[in-house]
Amino acid sequence: MKVLCGIGGSDDSFRALDRTVERAAVANDDLTIAVVDNEDSETSPDEVADRATAAVDEAGIDAEVRRVEGDPGSRLVEIAETEGFEEIVLGGGHTSPMGKITIGSIAEFVLLNAKTSVTLVR
Amino acid sequence: MSDRGYPDAVADEFPPPPTTFTDREDREIEVRPYEGDDEAREALVEMYDSFDPADRAQGIPPGGEERIREWLEAILPGDCYNVIAWCGDEAAGHATLVPDGDAYELAIFVHQTYQRAGIGTHLIRGLLGHGQANGVEKVWLTVERWNRAAVSLYKKIGFETSDAESFELEMGLRLCPDPDEETDGSGEEVDGPDGDQ
């Protein structure tokens, strides 16, 4: 499957990265990892990209790590549509001190606007 | 988190628990703070273990006894404030304030057997009274937009919407004056009748 994994540096995005890379190694997915600007993230896009590359190398798969600038949600939807991706994978939200799950604004936009299936990794 | 919004005005004074009342089904209900005892914790485990998953909010309460115990371990201890609505020795409802930086996150659950009887109003007022007695300044919560009963309860209590741009509404309440800021010092106590009864 042709999979686009969007990560911005939040904890849940790294969880999505690890799981997607793991799956790609088993299922032989055609994986692209898009490093997007997440203004809520304290990790810089360069660091996020380094971490993605390391994960890909460690799994021994052939996946592109691409830096994507601009509004993250709309860029991910646009790339998925123009390049024929079948699925977008994102982090599944963060957990409040109470334990409530909150979905990030990028995931909200992608869920409502993508034509492809969307997977939120928990 | 410090970037959440709160009303400028400080909320009414709420009665600190214990409080007792008769609900709309003529049941005697007592609201008491959780004091760390095992019996109360076990009563909560029992309440949440039979809780209807349809009334879950953003993943809580979790399902299954093991996860319920894990979750309660995170929200019952020392620096959290918890109150329980008791019907005899059965937990009918539970409300909690969990610390989050300089504020507290609020959640409240009433078991299906005890819903629509006015218990939620007494329970949240008891929790906020307990919080005020302990100097809690700011409280926030999230609530799903479609949960109108909950949204109107929070509004009635004095919560104001601070973020309406996500799937969930975020609401805030100022429970005690900020000690760093000047207050108007009117000292007036406004504690109107409980409109839910």
Automatic annotation (TrEMBL), chain A:
Output the superkingdom of the source species. Archaea
Q: Which family would the database say this protein is a member of?
A: Belongs to the universal stress protein A family.
The organism's lineage is: Archaea, Methanobacteriati, Methanobacteriota, Stenosarchaea group, Halobacteria
Show which residues constitute the signal peptide.
none
Q: Which residues form the UspA domain?
A: 2-122
**Stored InterPro entries:** Rossmann-like_a/b/a_fold, UspA
Q: Which Pfam families does this UniProt record tie to the protein?
A: Usp
Q: What Gene3D superfamilies has UniProt attached to this entry?
A: HUPs (3.40.50.620)
The UniProt transmembrane annotation reads none
Organism, as annotated: Halorubrum tebenquichense DSM 14210
**UniProt-recorded name of the protein:** UspA domain protein
UniProtKB/TrEMBL annotation, chain B:
Recorded hits in Pfam families, A to Z, give: Acetyltransf_1 (PF00583)
- An example Gene Ontology molecular-function term: acyltransferase activity, transferring groups other than amino-acyl groups
Segments carrying the region annotation (Disordered) are 1-24, 175-197
Query: Does the record carry Ligase as a key word?
Result: no
Q: Where is the composition biased (Acidic residues)?
A: 178-197
Task: Extract the SUPFAM superfamilies matched here.
Answer: Acyl-CoA N-acyltransferases (Nat)
- Tell me which residues make up the N-acetyltransferase domain: 29-176
Question: Which CDD domains does this UniProt record tie to the protein?
Answer: NAT_SF (cd04301)
Keyword vocabulary terms for this entry: Transferase
InterPro entries cross-referenced by the UniProt entry? Acyl_CoA_acyltransferase, GNAT_dom, MshD_Acetyltransferase
Name it.
GCN5-related N-acetyltransferase
Species: Halorubrum tebenquichense DSM 14210
